[in-house]
Specification:
By secondary structure, this protein is an alpha/beta fold. The protein has helices at about 15-25, 30-45, 55-65, 80-90, 110-120, 150-160, 215-225, 245-255, 260-275, 310-320, 350, 365-380; strands at about 50, 70-75, 95-100, 120, 130, 135-140, 165-170, 175-180, 190-195, 205-210, 285, 290-295, 300, 345, 355-360. It has twelve helices and 15 strands. The structure holds pyridoxal-5'-phosphate (PLP).
Length: about 375
């Protein structure tokens, strides 16, 4: 089977892992965590980076740090991996699901503006309250879907107007740029990256929080590492054990060392697919926009006129040719735990999600493999 997106571990992973074992630093103490955090901050031009046990725990910790609690809302897009919504629910808050724009498949800035203006009001303390529930809007959580940045200029202007902080879920967008800004420079309070096995860089499992400055990074580090003060068992707040281990960081560091090479390969693969299907009517590639550079986490095709049955049949035919194919993100408002949370839909995510067909795009995909994928898909479409 040619997998969709598997890690390439042919760099320093082996050496660094062996070093963890030979030095006995396999747990949360050890040099690789610090080295990974330093390199991640450099790559993304961030004030600070904090390594965590997963992207989900990174999102949860940041939302907690932002003060998101019971009786709060966080605005998320409908088209995302369920972890975005779960992180809000882990704070006992309720997500509000807003739909996406067709040009980027990310949180729609116009829906956001409409929603805050018409469905919310400012209370006496200056908090923004959702009229329908009486709960306050505590944060906006845009997602860089497929690795492509959201319309951050519009979103951050709206957020500023209402004084609401922004956390970006850039799980698979390390290396992406918005108006030439790296993830750490984009207008947002925090940015989260995932280092799960299927993402651009992996630590086996893990996450990174990008913060604007060292102080915010240290606060987050404190929260995610049991909030210990000093060397004995003193803890000053209810912290989380969301630490990344030295073992994970060893792999993560070796991966981040190769980020430029990985991004280049992802772009090459995306361009090959774009070109290979450009002559077929009704076949599109994933969104691209002039103001942004995508990390091209996943690439493939989008079939805007196909039915669910046609898509299912294409996927199963691909699988029988030993090419991995599975449905992509089912929108949040269609997921059992979030069917009843408030939402504002524009058919954006409902009309695309089952028509998105990611194709194999591991950085170590060979040219021959990609040619095989292309000819097989063309055979199914023509
Ligand atoms: C992968 C992913 C996450 C969660 O990251 P984990 O490391 O798997 O917990 C969150 N949001 C999005 C958009 C993702 O793709």
């Amino acid at each position: 089977m040619i997998p969709l997106s598997e890690p390439d571990l042919s760099g320093n992973e082996n050496t660094y892992l062996a070093e963890c074992v030979s030095t006995n630093f396999v747990s949360s103490v050890g040099p690789f965590v610090t080295r990974l955090e330093k390199l991640a901050a450099e790559i993304t031009n961030s004030g600070a980076a904090v390594a965590t046990s997963s992207g989900t725990t990174a999102l949860h910790a940041v939302l907690h740090q932002m003060g998101v609690r019971e009786n709060d809302h966080v605005i998320i897009p409908s088209f995302t991996f369920i972890a975005t919504a779960n992180a809000v629910a882990h704070c006992k808050a309720t997500p509000i699901v807003l739909d996406i724009d067709q040009s980027r498949w990310c949180l729609s800035a116009s829906l956001l503006e409409d929603f805050l203006k018409n469905a919310c009001f400012q209370d006496a303390q200056g908090r923004l309250i959702f009229s329908e529930t009486g709960k306050s809007i505590k944060a906006i959580l845009p997602v860089f879907a497929m690795g492509l940045p959201a319309d951050m200029n519009s979103i951050s202007n709206i957020a500023k107007k209402y004084d609401i902080p922004i956390l970006i879920d850039a799980a698979a967008a390390i290396g992406a740029k918005y108006r030439n800004l790296s993830l750490g420079e984009v207008e947002a309070d925090y940015v989260v990256i995932s280092m799960n096995g299927n993402k651009l860089v992996t630590a086996g499992g893990g996450g990174l929080v990008l913060a604007k400055n060292e102080k915010l990074g240290l606060d987050l580090k404190h929260l995610t590492t049991t909030a210990r003060v000093g060397k004995s068992y003193d803890h000053d707040i209810v912290g989380f054990n969301y630490r990344m281990t030295n073992l994970q960081a060893a792999v993560g560091l070796a991966q981040c060392e190769r980020i430029e090479e990985f991004l280049y390969r992802k772009l090459e693969i995306a361009n090959n697919y774009k070109e290979a299907f450009s002559d077929i009517k009704g076949v599109k590639s994933f969104p691209s926009v002039d103001d942004s550079v995508s990390s091209n986490w996943l690439s493939g095709i989008f079939l805007p006129d196909s039915s669910e049955a046609e898509m299912d049949s294409i996927r199963s035919l691909l699988r029988s040719s030993k090419i991995e194919a599975k449905p992509f993100w089912k929108p949040i408002h269609r997921q059992e735990p979030y069917r009843n949370v408030p939402n504002v839909l524009n058919n954006g995510s409902d009309s695309i999600w089952f028509r998105v067909l990611p194709l194999p795009c591991s950085t170590n995909l060979s040219l021959k493999q990609q040619e095989f994928v292309i000819s097989t898909v063309r055979g199914l479409l023509l």
